[in-house]
Structure formats: structure tokens, C-alpha cells
Amino acid sequence: MLGTISLLGALAGFVVWARSGGAGTGRRVVVDVPKGVTQGDLMAMLVDRGLVRRSFPFSLYFRLFTQGPAEGRHVLRDDLGPRSLAQRLSRSPSRATRKVTIPEGFHHKQIAARLAEFEICDGAEFETAAFDPALRSELGILGPSVEGYLFPATYELTVDTEPSNVIRLLVAETRKRLARISAEKPQAVATLAEKDGFGEHEILTLASIVERESGDPIEDPVIAGVFFNRLRDPDFRPLRSLGSDPTAGYGCLVMPERAPSCASYRGQVLPAMLRDAENPYNTYRHPGLPPGPIANPGETAIRAVLAPQKTDYLYFVAAGGGRHRFSRTFEEHRQAVSGR
Question: What CATH number does the domain located at 17-89 have?
């Protein structure tokens, strides 16, 4: 009887220990677990990184309650208790979740930073995955990255998740929203395909530009209409030029080495960047749409592309408070720019 009581007491103590917090201060630690790592090497790595004080009890717990470590990069903290640490290292379905909001207009680097902040995945690894050709091929995404397909919404995401799985989830949400909007406006989708050669990729690309240019969702259809006027008007010069500052800025963000003017880019688009034809995203120097989306648009911007407001505006300039002044001629636009 005494032996049974002692055993139960030991088990109870083991459970309490497993559910306790770690001894650290909350320092973020990223650990790369190689394929086929041995239990001994893993424990040595955890001790060395300050995640485990004594390897034996954690090693025993890990053997008893997990199916082993999951290969790849793990986002951990030095104050995680044994149970939470084991759940992350084994990528257990029972590990914690976090509610994460991705705002409209965020680009992939901003999303990566937010996911890292909430410990969903490593930010740098997410950025790499966003440009992974194999993943893009699997998801059927045209263009250089998954930018534009990472739908802005609030998600319940599991901590320490492989970036590719987060991307799959966000892309699935984009496709779900697109399918719903397209079902509501089938004629608009067909007209864009026939008149402008627009498919999913082109719709999201233009919607992303509208998203970045607009400061007030109420103006999204007007701004979309301006861009379609520029694309379609045979008298507009430069011909089919979208003339969007944010597209040039995005080119400097993702491929600064391609354009000399990007060397000075610190988030602000300068006149030299708008003259630089080496930037493939510079829509002042390259006609038509850029190579791909420049951000991740929400439903309002997507709907604006499918239902642009019909006007004869060709220009717009910020007027404060997120609103714009719209003009029909370049002379009107010059006056609007000068505030007259």
C-alpha cells in the first residue's frame, strides 16, 4: 500500500512539474531540429539553449507523452514549461492557439513580423516560404510569390506552425472569399476576362494596388475606375501606365538589388524611384500591371475591381484625411496637386 501511495505521489508530482512554467524570463528562442535527430542530441541542444535545466526528467516526459520531435524550425521561449515545450517540439495538435488579426493592405513582411510576434512561426522562414516555387506551384499561384493571396482577416492559429501550413490556410481563405464574390458577380468576372484578360492573379494584383492607394474604403471603386481608365484609354500617356507610387515602393522592398534608386529606400518613395526603369514594379516606366500583387487586399478592394465606378477621371492626389481629389485632365491634376 505504501508503495502504491508513493508511486501515485510521484506521478502526481511529475504531472505538476510538467504543467509548471519554465525558469526563464520569456526570451524567444528559435531552434532548428534536424531530420533524424537523436533524443540525446536534442536534449543537449535544449540544455545548451537554456530551454531545459536538467535533461533527464524532460527526456523521460518527452518519451512518454510524444511521438518524437518534428523536423524543422521551432519558435520557443525559455519560460515554457515541460508540457508546453514538448507540445511545440512534437507539433502536437493540442499545443496552444492565438487569435491573430492581419489587417487589409499588409504585405508579406508585415504579416511575417506579426506571426513572429504571436509565436505562430519564425518570421524569416515565413518570408522565405512566401517565395518558395514548389509551394506556389502546389497552390497554383502565378507571379513571384504568394503576395496578394494571404487574406486579411482574424484567424485562430496554432503556435509553432510550419510557415507553409500558415500560407496554405491564408490562401484557402482568399480563394473562398474570391469564389463567394465571383458567384455574386459572375458577369463582372466574365467581362474582365474577356475585355482585359483578367483572371484571379490580375484581379488580386489590381486590388492590392487599390488597397495601398486608398485611405478610405468608400473611394476604392473610384480609384479602381481610374486605373481601368488608364489601362483602357488609348489617348492616355504614357500608354497603359498605372502610375502608382506604392508599386515602385514594393519593388524596392522585395528586389532592392535590381534598381539603383532603391539604395536609398527607407519606406518613402522618392522621385528618382519613379524614374528608374530597372525596377520591374515601377508602373510609371512599365505599362500594365506589375509582376504581381504588392499587398494583400481585403474584400472591399476586390469588389472595387469587379465593380469599379464609371467616371472619366484619370488622376488623383491625396487631399488629407485619407481622401483624394480626382481630376479628368493633367492640367486639373496639376492644380489639385498645388492645392489651387
Answer: 3.30.1490.480
CA–CA gap between residue 285 and residue 275 (Å, rounded): 7
Rg (CA), the chain: 26
Per DSSP, 306 falls in state H
Cis link prior to 271 (omega < 30° from 0)?
no
Q: Which of 67, 113, 124, 119 is nearest to 97 (CA)?
A: 119
- The answer to whether the predicted template modeling score (pTM) of the entire model surpasses 0.70 is yes
CATH topology for 97-178 is: Dna Ligase; domain 1 (3.30.1490)
CA 12 to chain centre: 44
**In 3D, which of 186, 179, 143, 159 has the Cα closest to residue 97?**
159
Domain segments of the chain as ranges: 17-89, 97-178, 188-338
| Angle (CA) 258 262 263, round 5° | 105
What are 324's three cell numbers? 483624394
Q: How many helices and strands, by DSSP H and E, does the chain display?
A: 15, 6
For residues 204 and 252, what is the distance between their CA atoms, to the nearest angstrom? 20
Report the first-to-last Cα separation within the chain, whole angstroms: 94
Q: How far, in Å, CA of 216 to CA of 213, rounded?
A: 9
**Identity at 272, one-letter amino acid code:** A
pLDDT at 183 over 90: yes
Q: Helix or strand or coil: residue 323?
A: strand
CB count within 10 Å of CB 264 equals: 12
- 17, containing H or E segment: helix 2-19
**Is the dihedral angle over the CA atoms 114, 115, 118, 123 positive or is it negative?**
negative
User: Mind listing the pLDDT tens digit for each residue in 288-324?
Assistant: 999 999 999 999 999 999 999 999 999 999 998 889 9
Dist. CA 238–CA 287, nearest whole Å:
8
